[in-house]
Every structure is written in C-alpha cells, then in structure tokens.
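Board notes (copied after class):
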Amino acid sequence: VQLVESGGGLVQPGGSRRLSCAASGFTFSSYAMSWYRQAPGKERELVAGISSTGRTTNYADSVKGRFTISRDNAENTVYLQMSSLKPEDTAVYYCRGVMRETIYWGKGTLVTVSS
C-alpha cells in the first residue's frame, strides 16, 4: 500500500499550487480521501475531504473558497488545488485514505508560502 504526495514547493503569497496523491496497493475507489496538514509546532489538522465517489466534499473554514479537493478514480489519484495562498498555509501536507477501520497515510509534501 502506498500513498505518494507530490507538488509541494515554494510558492509566493497569493499564488497557486496543485498537490497530487497517487495511490496504489488498495481499492482506491472504495476509500474516502482527505488532505491534512501540519505546520511547525502545531497539530495535524484536516484541510479537505472527499467521499469515495467524489460527490461529497468538505473543507476547513480556513481554506473554504481557496482550496478544492478532487479525485480521479480511474487514475487512483486525489488532488488539492490551492489558490490565494497565504504564509499561514505553510505546512507539510498529507494524504489520507479511510475505509471503515482501515486508514492509510502518505509521507507528506512540504508547501512553503513565502516571498
């Protein structure tokens, strides 16, 4: 089982970035997927979630209207499109898959928002 995040890097404030999470080793289309983030010195927090079919999404208040989660079940990939980025969005972003009691995590990708 693998969840591999990519797309992190240095972004200027106000900029955009798209994160990807490629899944393998499990039935991706059966899992609800989500993105979490952890900033230095802070606890890991939920950023956005999407149901297994992609019909339902939810967002943290801090990213509503700026971030969009989506998934492609044919490509076993979940995305996080981030726009209007702020310095406080700087964090390691993690991908998570959940089905009943089974939870998988990726290793994370670092997003730094700075001028």
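Comment from the instructor: The longest strand covers residues 91-99. The two ends are 37 Å apart (CA to CA).
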